[in-house]
Amino acid sequence: xxxxxxxxxxxxxxxxxxxxxxxxxxxxxxxxxxxxxxxxxxxxxxxxxxxxxxxxxxxxxxxxxxxxxxxxxxxxxxxxxxxxxxxxxxxxxxxxxxxxxxxxxxxxxxxxxxxxxxxxxxxxxxxxxxxxxxxxxxxxxxxxxxxxxxxxxxxxxxxxxxxxxxxxxxxxxxxxxxxxxxxxxxxxxxxx
Amino acid sequence: xxxxxxxxxxxxxxxxxxxxxxxxxxxxxxxxxxxxxxxxxxxxxxxxxxxxxxxxxxxxxxxxxxxxxxxxxxxxxxxxxxxxxxxxxxxxxxxxxxxxxxxxxxxxxxxxxxxxxxxxxxxxxxxxxxxxxxxxxxxxxxxxxxxxxxxxxxxxxxxxxxxxxxxxxxxxxxxxxxxxxxxxxxxxxxxxxxxxxxxxxxxxxxxxxxxxxxxxxxxxxxxxxxxxxxxxxxxxxxxxxxxxxxxxxxxx
Lengths: 192, 252
Description:
The complex is a heterodimer of chains A (about 190) and B (about 250).
Chain A: H1 3-23, H2 36-57, H3 59-68, H4 71-108, H5 115-141, H6 147-172, H7 174-187
Helix pairs in contact in A: 2-4, 2-6, 4-5
Chain B: H1 2-18, H2 26-49, H3 54-83, H4 87-111, H5 119-144, H6 151-177, H7 182-203, H8 220-246
């Protein structure tokens, strides 16, 4: 089989696969409500549960338990902690996706968009998804330490605080936010 | 099969006229009329000069070139239908798609075997490949920005893409096995075209509603203010995640 023959056949197969993927109905989209009140939820969802998550993932708790409890219970707790870590990772990813969706909606509804900003966001999205998958695999294989997740918690916490500041600014720019909300409502498609 | 194709084209042209869809899709309507004309020209040529004559080959190559250009215009029409309401995204998309098409075409022409007997099939393959890539990129673009495509545009795009993909395969088979596979090559080409034709007839079975005028847009300042801010946050989140990843993991 010549190189060209193999190249074209594989490229066409790849194109057909991509075509199928592009035509596939997207997963049920989570609504992006862009009013100032609901935007606050974007930043607050992790803040709400942060103390509990930190407590659940604290290494001291686990060490204490491991020294006192039976191996069976320790193993069960380890599994539970891993489940929490995975759920938390999904939540962080959801935060990221929410921001991505918000930026996409703004881009779609803007009269002018910047190529650099759009491609940067695409790159960041791909990078973030890959990293999350790697961490997920590490957690599932038991390679990653759950204590690292508390680092992630702090990161999300800091992120949430910054988001809150930005959202407050957004709230202050009431006219802009109202315009944004009403434009999205007028559009009424593809966002929820 | 040739008769079935001509009947299908005639039916599609009639549908476009009856449902008045030719007004919304002038490039596609012109393309179908050109295909019908090519059939007539081909029939007369082959009867007059024979299937293997040089003049028949030249006429075939010329009409093929015209048809591919017409199909490229149809692709541009589909792109416009899908994205034109969103001015900012459209401005980004058409440049991106044009660069994609130029790059793919150039690449396809560069890697082709530079054989005089294969020049038409090589050029045809390059153009068909560029068309397929542009359509797939367009649909990926629409998916990325969560734009809902009209079913007519979607089926039109799918038909064009499938036909172009199979043309690339056909040209590749022709190039590899040249005349040994000519009969098979012709049958496959006709069959895939018939499949696309049926898809298009399905797409245009009803009158397509006139597209809404341009989407009401946000003031330009919203994008300038929020998107760099959001990107900065995403960048920070990503950076912190990468630091989290790099930390050496103690025992679980």
